[in-house]
Amino acid sequence: MIHPELTKYIEPHLPGARIETMTLPHSPMLQLYLLGADYPQHTLEPEQIAHLMDNPLYWSFCWASGQVLAQFLLEDPARVAGRHVLDFGCGSGVVAIAAAAAGAERVIACDIDPIALEASEANAALNGVVLEYAADFDAVEGKLDLIIVADVLYDRENLPWLQRFCERASEVLVADSRIKDFNVAPYRQIGRRAACTLPDLDESPEFRDVRLYHAGARSL
């Protein structure tokens, strides 16, 4: 099923591409509106490539770490059931949706990209869950029991956020495939799984190797 409104955002930059429903291979109970796998990635003009580099359509992909963290929560819903959860850098909203489906009381999808929030809202409706939306992390009010973070450490300048998360919530879960020398207290590695971006970007094996990290007093 094609989503016409979200497709309009990509048409000027990826002619012939579309946003359509895809079922997640690791969590088949979830579907997302994502970039169709047959998008014209090999026929782009230089100016189109430049625009995409400057304005990446993160929300139109379900990245490997997001898939792994969503699967992780759905397999053990007690981690989020009845809790107040914020998904930082939500992108497509996949991890927020998984948290809501697993029984979280309140889930906030947070992203500075307004189109990502629009995509998250469409994906939440597709999966029959209710989310809240925030463009500014610092403006979120109320208690947070858990902050969930996937695929935001591609830029090492984002590392200082890890301490801020610990200051804002009693527990943090991070999924990442980009930083292999991750050594940030009080985080510790609690898992490791393989996944690939959807649609598949044919990334190198190192970016399919997702590590899970936890910080907080709650026992895992």
Structure in words:
Helix 5 links the parallel strand 4 and strand 5. The longest helix is centred in the middle third of the chain and has 13 residues. The strands form 2 sheets. This protein has a 7-stranded mixed sheet, sandwiched between helices. Helix 3 runs parallel beside helix 4. The protein is 26% helix and 22% strand. By secondary structure, it is of the alpha/beta class. The radius of gyration is 17 Å and the shape is globular.
Helix content: 25-40%
Q: How many beta-strand segments?
A: 9
User: Could you give the order of strands across the largest sheet?
Assistant: 5-4-3-6-7-9-8
Strand content: 15-25%
Radius of gyration: 17 Å
Q: How far do the termini sit from each other?
A: 39 Å
Secondary-structure element series: HEEHHEHEHEEHEEE
Give the overall average pLDDT.
91
> Helix count, per DSSP?
6
Described by the principal axes of the CA atoms, the overall outline is globular
Give the class from helix and strand content and strand pairing. Answer: alpha/beta
Largest sheet: 7 strands, mixed
Low-confidence runs of at least 5 consecutive residues: none
